[in-house]
C-alpha cells in the first residue's frame, strides 16, 4: 500500500502539516485551583518574599502594594478572525488596576473564554503598574495634583490633561475619569478628540498620558545620581544560603 502524501506534486490532505485551527489534539486539562501560598521561582522573587527588596512576578506587586490594589474590567468585546473553516471568535478584555495613591496599570488580553481573558488582563495590568507623577503647579498648597500639561495619543484618540485648582474635581469622560480615580488624581481638566467611542484606544491614550508625567525633568529632579549595587550582588550570600536550604528540603522530600 502506497504511503500518503508522497513527493512533491502528489496529493496530500490539505496544507499545514495536518494542523487544524483548533491546534494539536490532546487531553484536555482541567482548571487548576489557584494556590494561596506563593513559592517564588526567581532570585528577585525570593528577595522580595523575605523583604530584602521592598520597592516581576505578579505576586511581587500584590505583596508590595498590598490589598489596596483594586482592579476593574473596563470592557469585554468579542473579536473575530476569518479562517478557512469559518469565523473564530475570541474575547478581548481591558482591565485597569490601581491603589488610588499614585500607582496605576493597564492590561489587555484576548482569549477564547471570558474568564481566561479577564484573568490574563489582570496579570498583565499588575505587571505594567507605573508610578503617576503628582505635584504642584505654581505654588505648593494643598494636596498634590497633576503638575503639568501632558498629552497622550492612541490611534485617532488624543487626550490632553491640564492642571486644575483645588476642588475642581476630575472633569473628564467616563473612561478617563475611572483611570484617573485609580491613579489617585483628584483635580484635573481634560480635553479629548477623535473616535472616543473606541474604548480600547481611549483608555490606552489616557494611560500613555499618565506615563508621560516622568518624561521630562524639572528643577526639583536636578540632583546628583548615586549608583547602587545590583540586588543580586548585594544579597549574593543570602541567595546562596536560600539555594542550599531549598536543595536540602528537596533531598529530604526525595528520601521520604
From TrEMBL:
Keywords annotated in UniProt: Ribonucleoprotein, Ribosomal protein
A GO term for molecular function: structural constituent of ribosome
Statement: the UniProt record of this protein carries the keyword Ribosomal protein: yes
Keyword tRNA processing attached: no
SUPFAM superfamilies, A to Z: dsRNA-binding domain-like, Ribosomal protein S5 domain 2-like
Pfam families according to UniProt: Ribosomal_S5, Ribosomal_S5_C
Residue ranges of every copy of the S5 DRBM domain listed in the record: 69-132
Cellular component terms per the entry's GO annotation: cytosolic small ribosomal subunit
One example of a Gene Ontology biological process annotation: translation
Source species, domain of life: Eukaryota
Residue span of region Disordered: 1-35
Compositionally biased region (Basic residues): 1-11
Record-stated family: Belongs to the universal ribosomal protein uS5 family.
NCBIfam families from the UniProt entry: uS5_euk_arch (TIGR01020)
Name listed for the protein in its UniProt record: Small ribosomal subunit protein uS5
UniProt source species: Gossypium tomentosum
Lineage: Eukaryota, Viridiplantae, Streptophyta, Embryophyta, Tracheophyta
Amino acid at each position: 500500500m502506497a504511503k500518503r502524501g508522497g513527493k512533491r506534486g502528489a496529493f496530500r490532505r490539505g496544507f499545514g502539516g495536518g494542523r487544524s485551527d483548533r491546534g494539536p489534539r490532546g487531553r484536555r486539562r482541567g482548571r487548576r485551583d489557584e494556590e494561596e501560598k506563593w513559592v517564588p521561582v526567581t532570585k528577585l522573587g525570593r528577595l522580595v518574599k523575605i523583604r530584602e527588596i521592598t520597592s516581576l512576578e505578579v505576586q511581587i506587586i500584590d505583596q508590595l502594594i498590598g490589598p489596596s490594589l483594586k482592579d476593574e474590567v473596563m470592557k469585554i468585546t468579542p473579536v473575530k478572525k476569518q479562517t478557512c473553516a469559518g469565523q473564530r471568535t475570541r474575547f478581548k478584555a481591558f482591565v485597569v488596576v490601581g491603589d488610588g495613591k499614585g500607582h496605576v496599570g493597564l492590561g489587555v488580553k484576548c482569549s477564547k473564554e471570558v474568564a481566561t481573558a479577564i484573568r490574563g488582563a489582570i496579570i498583565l495590568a499588575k505587571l505594567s503598574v507605573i508610578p503617576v507623577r503628582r505635584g504642584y503647579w505654581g505654588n505648593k498648597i494643598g494636596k498634590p495634583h497633576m503638575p503639568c500639561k501632558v498629552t497622550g495619543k492612541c490611534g485617532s484618540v488624543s487626550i490632553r490633561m491640564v492642571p486644575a485648582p483645588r476642588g475642581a474635581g476630575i472633569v473628564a469622560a467616563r473612561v478617563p475619569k475611572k483611570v484617573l480615580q485609580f491613579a489617585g488624581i483628584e483635580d484635573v481638566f481634560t480635553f479629548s478628540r477623535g473616535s472616543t467611542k473606541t474604548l480600547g484606544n481611549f483608555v490606552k491614550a489616557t494611560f500613555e498620558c499618565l506615563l508621560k508625567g516622568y518624561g521630562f525633568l524639572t528643577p526639583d529632579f536636578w540632583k546628583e545620581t548615586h549608583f547602587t549595587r545590583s540586588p543580586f550582588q548585594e544579597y549574593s550570600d543570602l541567595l546562596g544560603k536560600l539555594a542550599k536550604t531549598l536543595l536540602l528540603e528537596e533531598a529530604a522530600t526525595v528520601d521520604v
